[in-house]
Amino acid sequence: MKYLLILFYSIFIGCYNIYGLALQEEKSNQIPSKEHTNYKLSDWPEEIPESIIFIIADGTGIGQYTLSYYANGDFAPARFDHIGLVATHPNDGECASTCKRVTDSAASGTALSAGLKTYNGAIGVDKEKMPVKTMLEWAEEKDMLTGLVATSSVTHATPASFAAHVDYRKKEAEIAQQYAHSDVDLILGGGKKFWPDSLIKIFEQNNGQFIENLESKINFKKKILGLFSQDGMPKVHEGRNPSTTKMAQFALNYLQNASNGFFIMIEESQVDWGGHSNSAEYIKGEMQSLNELIHFILDYQEENPKTLVVLTADHECGGVAVHDGADGDLDIRFTSDYHSANFVPIFATGPGAEVFDAFMDNTEIGRMLIEYIKN
Ligand SMILES: [Zn+2]
Q1: Which residues are catalytic?
Q2: In angstroms, rounded to a whole number, what is the distance separating the alpha carbons of residues 225 and 245?
Q3: How far is the CA of 150 from the centre of ligand 1 (A)?
Q4: Would the N or C end of the chain have less CB density within 10 A of its end CB?
């Protein structure tokens, strides 16, 4: 009898692990997806803003914020008054067969800039590759001053989605050409290699001033183009200079002379690249930079309460999760070296911020900010 019990027991333990899952059971992590709803924002705020500061932390989801919270200490996003969650899928493929849930920065950049779903790779164009009007272009039409700041090349997908219209994101030289002829008042970041001298000349002839460091004396009556590296700017932990916050400071100093308000998009571009390279160190540095930027921008907002500040991400990158490592360290793990479809947070403070206390589709952010600018 005793031997029989031991036999049964070892058969039981042999087949099941401690969670009761049969070990031989075939597990599949491929599960069918269902039709989803694009949730809308229905509220209209009591007050709308005079100026908008839109911060996009590229590739920054809950895992990246959690990493920063435990690795960097001080957590600036806690200063925001309103928090929501955002679904980021593109409109790419037929949902019955090849539908994509994971977006790239071009499709989601266009969702955020123009309030419209499009295909992966699309910069400021719809599914038929027709240009769509962005919030920055609406701001220009309303005589607001406009700015773009990025730590990638300024012609990279996210900033490009606000001020250019091309069918494919890799056409950065063409995007630079469109910028040179555009009415964007201020552009700061990397990517000098996409601006041959002949193009800089065209920009200057179009009432532009080109600078390569923030100490340059500037003419406030001219449009400003500042390029500080050949490609993307150096990583934070390798000594980025100027810092994202320094560029933001310079930009606000220029834009706050606006008589009719301003719109600026500031991108902390490289949290995403840290996710692509599965580097916790890289993400930690970029999140530190984002944290400093948030403090600076929210201090500015306190002094200028008619300004709305919105912070969100275009998508998550890396499937980042935070675990306990040895000796009290963090063990950061990645599920991928590409983007995930995980929801991303949105934070907001200022007039019109309260509508973002919700679960929403990413196009709703674009749509709502455009409504604020139009009104
Ligand atoms: Zn990416």
Answers
A1: 105
A2: 17
A3: 14
A4: N
